Amino acid sequence: xxxxxxxLPKYYDIAFSWDISRETTIFRELFKRxxxxxxxxxxxxxxxxxxxxxxLPKYGYHMTGYDNxxxxxxxxKKRIIESKLQNMAKVITGDMKSIRFKTKFDAAIxxxxxxxxxxxxDDIITHFYNTGDSIKRNGIYIIHLSCAWDRLSPHEEEEWIxxxxxxxxxxxxxxxxxxKQKKISFxxxxxxxxxEGRHIILxxxxxxxxxxxxxxxxxxxxxxxxxxxxxxxxxLNQIPLDNHISGELGNLYYILKAL
Length: 259
Known about the structure:
alpha/beta, Rossmann fold, S-adenosyl-L-methionine-dependent methyltransferases, 2 domains, seven-stranded mixed β-sheet
């Protein structure tokens, strides 16, 4: 039996919520380091199943998330209600390429390279412009992604197993190839799901933006809404902006300061 990953939000949530507490700790620390005011209201583009929408309110943050997948939004709404967080979190349907807000947020977060699904320069610049327009001056937008590898091994991949509520999921996510000229990364996600004896096999190809550091800097600058203020690895070590940045450094946290 084959299904689409993004139409199975419960399985997606189990597979990709392996260390939410560590990620939340990183975001909270970066808020403290890079905003001159206390962060209270946070926007999350491409919020998926709403894992941060229900975790960050534990620390007093008000969350607003959006996603372009209606099943993800429905799942996130349900978990907000089940967590009794209706006064602290909300989720709506929206697309990173076009959505705008009148509300001014203190900060925004974008995890697991969700922004990578924007393939074209104009869409990326528009997203940065609209998001920057919705963040207070000196607030920050944290995006989490990795750049192109200098030397990509054939079928570079990660594998992990997660379990929850009697469901076991083995996930393999790999890079099949990178087209550096077209700035496209071709990636493959495989899942083997055992839901109390019900077996589901997922195998999906994903086409993502292939990021180059200088290219990303240029797109941020062209939005005229942000400047790249800092860069951190997943152990919160700050990386000088004049360093050579490539995929060998792993997923990095980019701190975009709202102008």
